Amino acid sequence: MFKNHPKGLIPAALSNMGERFGYYIMNAVLVLFLCSKFGLAEETSALIYSFFYAGIYVLSLVGGIIADKTQNYKSTIIWGLIVMTLGYVVLSIPIFATAGNQTWLLTLTCGALFFIAFGNGLFKGNLQAIVGQLYDNPRYAAQRDAGFQIFYVFINIGGVVAPFVAPMLRSWWLGENGFMYNASLPALCHEYLSVTDSMDTQNLNNLYALITAVGGNAAGNISEFCTTYLNVFNTGIHYSFFASVAAMLISLTIFICTKNGLPSPGKKAKEESVSYTAEEKARMAGEIKQRMYALFAVLGIAIFFWFSFHQNGTSLSLFARDFVKTDSIQPEIWQALNPFYVIILTPVVMWFFGRLSRRGKEISTPRKIAIGMGLAGIAYVFLAVFSAIKGYPSADAFKALPADEAAALKTGPWVLFVLYFFLTVAELFISPLGLSFVSKVAPKHLQGLCQGLWLGATAVGNLLLWIGPLIYNACPIWVAWTVFLSVCIVSMGIMFGMVKWLERVTK
Fold first, then answer.
1. Would 268 be classed as within a structural domain?
2. pTM given for the model
3. Mind listing the pLDDT tens digit for each residue in 435-460?
4. What residues make up the domain containing 313?
């Protein structure tokens, strides 16, 4: 698997794996944590998540500019890891949210998320630029796509384990305090503490039933129980953020110890500068312009893929919580399916592409990206058809049902296995190959900026994530899945329409 790849690939991948492990611990629970911690509506929590996720990628553009301007990619990466660590330290402090402190505590939490996003911006794109330069050597150039796929596998090794950490610590802490886990109980507790006797009768009955189910006393002081349960529930999640801090420190140590063996994109470009005639400069300027046009065309398509794919942290997480039986497996854990599939499917995809190449039928990177959009569409076709057949209502209507009636409508976890399989295969056709595409077309002195532009396109897609939960709560949920399906199909059509031009420009 590592044959014919530069030695610097593994250290860079390990540095990224540590950072991604810490990030995925937090990301797996963020939307649901904001709801359980502060009693936020799902739409509000999803909006914060959207801005945070978009911020990561917008600030990657800033990080690329900083690295390109200072010509010091490695120091920028180190400072990124330090800033992220500070953000996770703040998140790990278990302060109980009350009416008196909620405003400043939510502000502090958003501030910590900004630190994580800014640090990620300094780290993410610049490390990818370094990986891209490893393959500028003609000896390794033919392995560029495969190299980024391997790099992507290491990202997801951390992602497989990370989603288990927060739910495990939360369940452990609940157990230490004599309680059991229930995904629906925090929202009902917040509602009771907010309105008390004005609470909807059906919701109040559901609250009493769940208090008994988790080991509480429904005949006792309900306000006291709700306060205690919420405090214990969220404190367990705060403890998981300590693991994120440890992961950042490990990633920082790995990078500092191995950075001397990694290239510096800007410095190499400067060393290789030579004199050109006016005609050569004009020709090169025209070629760079065409390549940048191609880059922006692909970035436009990437926006819509990430808008659909990153629903795994918003509407798909809510779907796993609401409509899938989670008695034994907590909803956040299902996010581990995606990185798990990445790890086991990447060798298969690499073998498939390699086989086609050996037969002289190699698929170009732009064509692979177009196919990936179609595969993402298949995932949402499946989910839309399944939800329509089951007759699932909107999430708001579903949560208003009696607890026993809602439980009877829930489906088995096999749905998530099928869904994430197709989404992951789509991701393998788009995300690592998109990184490879950017490193191929980007001017050498703008590697950090162009990697930041790729991540910036992801940011724009993430700014739209809040739309998913909005439709999910207001309409029969098959409508939400149909929206994402439509986005994928239209994007695939546009990409296929540009394929021949992109192939010509990027030769």
1. no
2. 0.70
3. 677 767 766 666 666 766 777 777 78
4. 9-262+280-505
